[in-house]
């Protein structure tokens, strides 16, 4: 079964390019250009990972991520922030995101970070089950 | 972005929407220093400075016997000063209608206060000086000096506010500028990579894709340098 990536990005060109790249890498990709309904989106899509732009309407990526982290059912979904923001490392730690991708990025950067965090989630689930 | 830049660059003088924005531009140490200086300069026993945020006063500094002077007295006096055009003078505090019901130390009778007023006329605070009698060193000339001092201080606060506002706007514009350049760079760079992945490209087109990729990398380095310079400058 294909792993699902939910992308939040208000720049439609970048959103489309990410979708092309990840679809070609055998992921199922869902996209949104606003994040105010993130909880409903996550319930509907049930993603394996979320790729979140930070400067996105209406509530902004940081706030949206915090909403997801507050939900017991979704708090363990890996969230990778991607942005052209200067302080991604600091923001990533502050909001407890799984990782970050600084724009501009390469195709390999995108594929690697998605694969990394989906694999980490899988390993952590396997460890939990074996315990 | 363009509209925001234009608006920011056109602003020669920034008018604060709220007096408390101005007040935040005064360093805490400055209140104490100035209050002490005024007490020494004019020979008053007790000197204070309060700030008005548009809704309530707050005491920022006091020079003298603070434990003997109630906040009721300081805020009542500040309110009187706020309503004054240039200054407010009381020769007998205990018989003044606004302060007669307040417990006032017997050593304090004479009061003079000057409001902090911005150029736009907004009151942002008051400075008050109290003593038992009119101090020997105090006269009409001293009062004029006090008014000028307060006016200079208010100008200084406004200047600091304008500087801070301008700096904040520049920071915002720079952040927007670097952010809005990196997004299209991402699009150009990814498109060049995707085209380059096609199997049937001629060597010439493949070279072009590589050139685009390298050029976007160089542009991104320039943006990084610009952002680093801006960060260091702040």
TrEMBL record, chain A:
Cross-referenced InterPro entries: Bact_response_regulator, CheY-like_superfamily, Sig_transdc_resp-reg_receiver
UniProt KW Ribosomal protein keyword: no
Modified residues (4-aspartylphosphate): 53
Keywords, comma-separated and alphabetical: Phosphoprotein
Domain Response regulatory stretches: 4-118
Gene3D superfamilies to which the protein is assigned, alphabetical: 3.40.50.2300
Pfam families: Response_reg
PANTHER family per UniProt: RESPONSE REGULATORY DOMAIN-CONTAINING PROTEIN (PTHR44591:SF3), STRESS RESPONSE REGULATOR PROTEIN 1 (PTHR44591)
Protein name: Response regulator
Originating species: Taibaiella lutea
Upper classification of the organism: Bacteria, Pseudomonadati, Bacteroidota, Chitinophagia, Chitinophagales
From TrEMBL, chain B:
SUPFAM superfamilies: GAF domain-like, Homodimeric domain of signal transducing histidine kinase
Catalysed reactions, as listed in the record: ATP + protein L-histidine = ADP + protein N-phospho-L-histidine
Domain of life (superkingdom): Bacteria
Enzyme class, UniProt record, top EC level: transferase
One Pfam family recorded for the sequence: HisKA
InterPro entries associated with the record: GAF-like_dom_sf, HisK_dim/P_dom, HisK_dim/P_sf
Protein name per its UniProtKB record: histidine kinase
Coiled coil: none
EC number: 2.7.13.3
All residue ranges annotated as the Signal transduction histidine kinase dimerisation/phosphoacceptor domain in the record: 178-226
Organism per entry: Taibaiella lutea
Record GO terms (molecular function): phosphorelay sensor kinase activity
């Amino acid at each position: 079964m294909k792993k699902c990536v939910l992308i939040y990005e208000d720049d439609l060109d970048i959103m489309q390019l990410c979708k092309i790249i990840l679809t070609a890498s055998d992921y199922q990709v869902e996209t949104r250009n606003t994040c105010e309904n993130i909880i409903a989106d996550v319930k509907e899509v049930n993603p394996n990972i979320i790729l979140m732009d930070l400067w996105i309407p209406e509530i902004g990526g940081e706030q949206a991520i915090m909403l997801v982290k507050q939900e017991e059912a979704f708090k363990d979904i890996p969230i990778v922030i991607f942005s052209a923001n200067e302080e991604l490392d600091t923001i990533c730690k502050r909001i407890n995101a799984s990782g970050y991708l600084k724009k501009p990025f390469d195709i390999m950067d995108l594929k690697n970070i998605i694969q990394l965090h989906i694999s980490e989630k899988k390993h952590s689930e396997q460890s939990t089950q074996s315990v | 972005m363009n509209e925001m830049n234009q608006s920011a660059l056109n602003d020669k003088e920034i008018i604060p929407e709220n007096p408390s924005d101005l007040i935040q531009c005064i360093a805490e140490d400055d209140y104490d220093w100035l209050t002490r200086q005024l007490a020494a300069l004019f020979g008053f026993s007790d000197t204070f400075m309060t700030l008005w945020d548009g809704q309530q006063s707050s005491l920022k500094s006091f020079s003298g016997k603070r434990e003997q002077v109630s906040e009721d007295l300081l805020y009542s006096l500040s309110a009187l000063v706020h309503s004054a055009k240039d200054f407010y003078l009381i020769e007998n505090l205990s018989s003044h209608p606004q302060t007669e019901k307040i417990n006032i130390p017997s050593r304090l009778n004479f009061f003079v206060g000057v409001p902090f007023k911005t150029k736009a006329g907004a009151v942002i605070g008051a400075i008050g000086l109290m003593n038992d009698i009119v101090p020997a060193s105090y006269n009409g000339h001293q009062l004029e000096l006090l008014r000028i001092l307060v006016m200079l201080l208010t100008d200084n606060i406004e200047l600091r506010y304008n500087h801070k506002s301008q700096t904040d706007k520049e920071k915002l514009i720079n952040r927007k500028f670097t952010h809005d350049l990196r997004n299209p760079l991402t699009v150009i760079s990814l498109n060049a990579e995707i085209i380059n992945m096609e199997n049937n490209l001629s060597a010439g087109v493949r070279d072009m894709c590589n050139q685009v990729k390298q050029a976007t990398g160089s542009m991104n380095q320039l943006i990084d340098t610009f952002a680093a310079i801006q960060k260091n400058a702040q």
